[in-house]
Amino acid sequence: MVIPDTRHRTGSPGLRRINLALFAAGLTTFMSLYCTQALLPELSGAFAVPPARASLLVSLATGAVALAVVPVSSLSERFGRTRVMIVSSLASAAVGLLLPLCTTFGTLAAARALQGVALAGVPAVAMAYLADEVHGLSLGAAMGRYVAGTGIGGVLGRLVPSTVSDVAGWRWGLAATGLVASAFTLAFWALLPPSRHFRPAPVDHRALLRHLRDPGLRRLYLIALTAMAGFVTVFNFLTYRLLDAPFGLPQSVVGLIAVTNLAGSAASARAGTLADRIGRRAVLPGACGVAACGLALTFPASLPLVAVGLLVFTCGFFATHAVASGWVGARAATGRAQASALYLCAYYLGSSIGGTAGGLAYERAHWTGTALYVLVLFGVACLAAATVDERVISGGQTTKGADLAPSGQRTESNAGHGGHAA
């Protein structure tokens, strides 16, 4: 007997609410996570620390997210997706409002690490929530819209503090960011529909090992690690380059580089839809290649080339992330929250470790060394993307040759096992 699939589909009121709620969640999460990134040169001066150490104000937050996503995702299997996401977003907003009160680099760094732990619940659970509640044929587009929200959140998380700090200093910049992030958090709370298909389940730590034994998921986790390491490195240290000679741009203008994330958000939504239509294996390696080509344009000391290169690089990165993250949720037949959490653990470890390593490259070889470091990272991601094999789904189910098929065109029995209604 075939059980009707009652998950939300494109055009339904429920999916529209989910899209809006998760869009707001992406906004508040990435605003909070990267609110210190555009301020790194100013914070270097305020606390008399070099660029690599200043980058810890980003890396500690993302590293804390990386460490927390796996246990938080396990909590969501027992206590529910929506509860964990709402508590997490409210706690992170509260910590964000305390950041302007920090008086030393150490206390600010500690507060950023605490904020990262608080933030972990939203990214840890959002992909599993979408995989539970959204029909497979609509999942890629829904994931793309969530990633689009994170992209715009990244814009606001850099643009708001950099603009305000140019007028009133970094403390007011962080305060303004905290207030805007809190408003988006309340919108997320009000809009998020309850889970209809979630079923509480005992925490199965063996699911983590099953996912790690899946070679396709391992490659997707490697893509998350390397692509995010490269992306954060570029946005951490391109600001230093643009403030120095020969560019010499003011802080408020340098903060505008975050506007490229708007194009990245559009690219992520488009890539998710395209992956639903022609298949992820056809889209993912190309997205990595686009990012690498954009980065190559930033080598010359030409502002127009740097601007175009950054735009292309950002579009390629967001497309890569949208397709890879959606593939994880679709590939894992059981323990989707843990599968998504492992992806995000790799993603934020890339941000934390890779971003700080990029600071060492910048201190030793300036932008040329930094860009070469990022090109190597995306070369690894491109190779991994080209070798992902979708024929075996984590948990032992097979797609029977679906590795080249569009992502939604799998049997319903494979789309939901282990307490996830199909």
UniProtKB/TrEMBL annotation:
SUPFAM superfamilies: MFS general substrate transporter
InterPro entries for this protein: MFS, MFS_dom, MFS_trans_sf, Sugar_transporter_CS
Protein location: Cell membrane
Keyword vocabulary terms for this entry: Cell membrane, Membrane, Transmembrane, Transmembrane helix, Transport
Entry's transmembrane regions: 20-40, 52-72, 84-107, 172-192, 220-243, 249-269, 281-299, 305-329, 341-361, 367-388
Lineage of the organism: Bacteria, Bacillati, Actinomycetota, Actinomycetes, Streptosporangiales
GO cellular component, one term: plasma membrane
Region Disordered, annotated ranges: 399-422
GO MF term (any one): transmembrane transporter activity
Protein name: MFS transporter
Annotated membrane topology: Multi-pass membrane protein
Primary site of residence: membrane
Homology family: Belongs to the major facilitator superfamily.
Gene3D superfamilies assigned: MFS general substrate transporter like domains
Domain of life, source organism: Bacteria
Organism this protein belongs to: Actinomadura rayongensis
Positions of the Major facilitator superfamily (MFS) profile domain: 14-397
